[in-house]
Specification:
single chain, 94 residues, 3-stranded mixed sheet
Amino acid sequence: MGWCDDSRSKKYNKEISFPFKYNAEKLYRKNNSYDIFINIRYNQLPAIKEKGSAIFLHLADSKYKATKGCIAIKKNDFLKILPLINNKTKIAIK
């Protein structure tokens, strides 16, 4: 499973399966950062090319290293807020 971040594709900013001929991010990481993640649905309905691909809320690595545009939090914190999140929850990025 992956996420297309290539604006040349008709599947831009959508979940895809591999093999895939355009650029896409694999939703599996050896560092476990995607073991738990939520797609916050940035630029999806409709997806506007060149506006940016998905932003995920996902697990931070042990050093809290910067992401390439996502939001990363420690697993303990994620597990605390997960029961409070539903399909109507809004995440504001400021």
